[in-house]
Amino acid sequence: MDNRPIGFLDSGVGGLTVVREVFKQLPNETVLFIGDSARAPYGPRPKSQIIEFTKQLVNFLLKQDIKMLVIACNTATAAALDILKEELMIPVIGVILPGSRAAIKATQNGHISVIGTAVTIESHRYTQAIQAKDSQILVSELACPRFAPLVESGGYHTPVAKKIVAESLRPLKFTKQDVLILGCTHYPLLRSIIQNVMGDNITLIDSGIETVAELSVLLDYFNMSASQSTPKDHRFYTTASVKLFGEIAMDWMNQKSLSIEHVELKDL
Ligand code: DGL
């Protein structure tokens, strides 16, 4: 048993899609989350800067004695997971491998598409992970750079969101995938719009859901699950506005109150 919190990080509010699953699949665990909305989106930034920012967020979480780290951001996973795994003394997981495994399981016709930020798509991490398991699977990749800023602004329910999603996904109309990986943790907030545009015969994979299922296995494997009786003291930190973060977090996670604090970039 280990009652210390699990650390989660993202460039902004996207990682909350992973935390929502933790509340559902692992209700005994305590969440410590930091979202760097002040510097989001990470997607168009150079890899070296994403590594630098990610390390700052990791250090912030490590100071609060986390037992495990989940990089709840595909972009940071693509850029920094390998380095963090080497450098940290605690178990670290990202979101790309769990999403890839779920997509392989779901495809019937052997053609998977992935959408994500520019950095994630240009890293080809999803294609590599999928084809390392099954080289026969065809993977199509598409960057959707307008999605994360749309979600960060809180505008994910608006008619503008529908227009942006329809325009951005147009290239996938010409591909024959039966599975689409939401390769950015911000995208599940646009899930119903994406499903509408793609049609009901396309299976959407939410990497966050798959990551939490694997986190659950790891907690058991390392004998690190929290006990049922621990009082949960979930804490959320944002480098930007507590108000906007709170509105999105409470809407998305269906919570009435959450402990959310602002962190200055200079204190990271
Ligand atoms: N939520 C992030 C991801 O999963 C990044 C979005 C961004 O900051 O560009 O890729």
Model description:
This protein has 268 residues and is of the alpha/beta class. It folds into 2 domains: 148 residues, 3-Layer(aba) Sandwich (Rossmann fold), CATH 3.40.50; 112 residues, Rossmann fold, CATH 3.40.50.1860. 44% of the residues lie in helices and 16% in strands. It contains 11 helices and 10 strands. A 6-stranded parallel β-sheet has the order 4-3-1-2-9-10, sandwiched between helices. It has a 4-stranded parallel β-sheet with strand order 6-5-7-8. Helix 1 packs across helix 10, helix 2 crosses helix 3 and helix 4 crosses helix 6. It starts with 5 loop residues before the first strand and ends in a 6-residue tail after the last strand. The model has no long low-confidence stretch (mean pLDDT 96). D-glutamic acid binds next to helix 3.
